[in-house]
Amino acid sequence: MSLTTWVLYALLAALWAVYGFVHKNPPIWVGNSLGFLMDMAMVMGIFWHTGGTF
Known about the structure:
The structure is a single chain. By secondary structure, the protein is an all-alpha fold. The chain contains 2 helices and no strands. Helix 1 packs antiparallel against helix 2. It is elongated, with a radius of gyration of 13 Å. It starts with a helix and ends with a helix. The mean pLDDT is 94.
């Protein structure tokens, strides 16, 4: 599990969520908001599993 990869996934999902929100397109912002939450759960899991050390 690469922390960098999951942080980038979360960043991209957040950007798409903002794009969908700005353009008032619920399928885009809702789906990517949920994706962002799942990606951040992975990031937190990596931190938890490694103890914050890399």
